[in-house]
Task: inverse folding
């Protein structure tokens, strides 16, 4: 999604050229290119699919079929993790606790299905500014509290620095998630201000913002995270630039963080 | 601030006409009209000043003198509460914990000064989307943790529904604040989406958004809050309308919430 201006074949080609060993994919471009064709493309290039984004939105009509399809797609791509963005309040709703309970109930229905297909569900807490309309799960503690009702190989959490950086309780939750084998996805994005209208597409390029990304990487490593570190930037300015240039810049910023490879 | 398009005399006149017994003021209009003149205007009209906004911004140059002046101004207005918006990260800073420690240190310097003048400092946690640039105190728990280092008659907290509505830990913190006599200010604003660019001036008119305002009022009452309930809306659309009309609409919405008068 960081370089959504690139087609799937362009993305794969550039990852190979730049030595990026693994990539997280989103469902829409995969579906547009074709699921089987996408799986073949990535596999033939020797890339790993780190995660598929996204399932969730459990308050929308048809959520169950849609999420089962997302699990199937993740399995077909060889992605071991499906990221869940759980959805906010239902139309006219004002009860966040009820929305969170509904999310937990939906995950209970999906977890065995995912487990049978070797796909781990990863609950992503989104920044509290999305609580109403995108995700009622706003903190890592909340995400973990739901995940812990299920086996770790079925349900875990996503730690995205953009969403949790402000939370003084998040570091302890990262450690708890890691110790329990539930840190299924770790993503980086920086926090820059002012936020754009709608607050969706203003995630900062690594190093452009105020998040101590190196500290968060060390925190994840200390929690036992040895899986991939993804970079997920929703950013209108980056999307308006040449995709290869943005990919190279992102790799350079990532490398400058000095994260030890896994 | 909800009707900042009204001059101070217009505001006072309309409050008296509409039977609004008390009003929260901001420093800038008070200074523009003159501190003594403002105090006299409000007093002669029989109004109470619920709170003065705002002190804080403890990372800015000159913060100590400015905050002492704010305390003096609150005392002169007969406002028993000064709201503190504590400030975000210093320029180039990435250490939120250090910013929070600096805030606590600043309040330690101010608390006795405030106490001697009969003014209570009220730490306002701002929504986490403001953590970088406006207020590193993002949750009611964080605000209380700082406040509890001082006597309750010197330092307490502000509960503003706009900032805390998403937080599943906030209700317990409201109860804790109330039990300790630290719920110094209670403010209402609704949450509407999409958020505007800069996310500053999109606070929803009561009833227009997704916050269960009645439930929050009941929560505050259950915590022993018998003080004023303020309505603080930063909203470009409301500011663009006739101020008297907005004041009447706000009073109507407030009345519809059915909050028992104190």
Result:
């Amino acid at each position: 999604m960081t370089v959504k201006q690139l087609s799937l074949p362009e993305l794969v080609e550039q990852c190979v050229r730049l030595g990026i060993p693994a990539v997280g994919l989103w469902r829409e471009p995969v579906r547009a290119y074709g699921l089987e064709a996408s799986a073949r493309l990535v596999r033939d290039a020797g890339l790993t699919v780190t995660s598929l984004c996204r399932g969730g939105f459990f308050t929308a009509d048809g959520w169950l079929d849609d999420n089962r399809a997302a699990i199937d797609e993740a399995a077909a791509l060889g992605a071991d993790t499906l990221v869940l963005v759980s959805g906010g309040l239902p139309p006219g709703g004002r009860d966040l606790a009820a929305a969170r309970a509904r999310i937990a109930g939906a995950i209970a229905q999906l977890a065995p299905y995912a487990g049978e297909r070797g796909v781990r569900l990863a609950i992503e807490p989104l920044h509290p500014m999305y609580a109403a309309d995108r995700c009622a799960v706003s903190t890592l503690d909340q995400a973990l509290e739901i995940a812990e009702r299920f086996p770790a190989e079925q349900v875990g959490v996503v730690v995205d620095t953009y969403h949790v950086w402000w939370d003084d309780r998040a570091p302890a939750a990262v450690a708890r998630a890691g110790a329990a084998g539930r840190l299924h996805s770790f993503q980086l994005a920086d926090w820059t201000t002012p936020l754009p209208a709608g607050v969706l597409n203003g995630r900062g390029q690594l190093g452009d913002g105020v998040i101590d990304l190196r500290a968060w990487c060390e925190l994840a490593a200390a929690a036992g995270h040895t899986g991939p570190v993804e970079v997920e930037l929703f950013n209108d300015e980056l999307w308006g630039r040449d995709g290869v240039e943005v990919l190279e810049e992102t790799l350079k910023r990532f490398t400058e963080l000095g994260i030890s490879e896994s």
Remarks:
- Chain A has one domain: 8-256.
- Residues 30 and 37 of chain A are 9 Å apart (CA to CA).
- The two ends of chain A are 22 Å apart (CA to CA).
- DSSP finds eleven helices and nine strands in chain A.
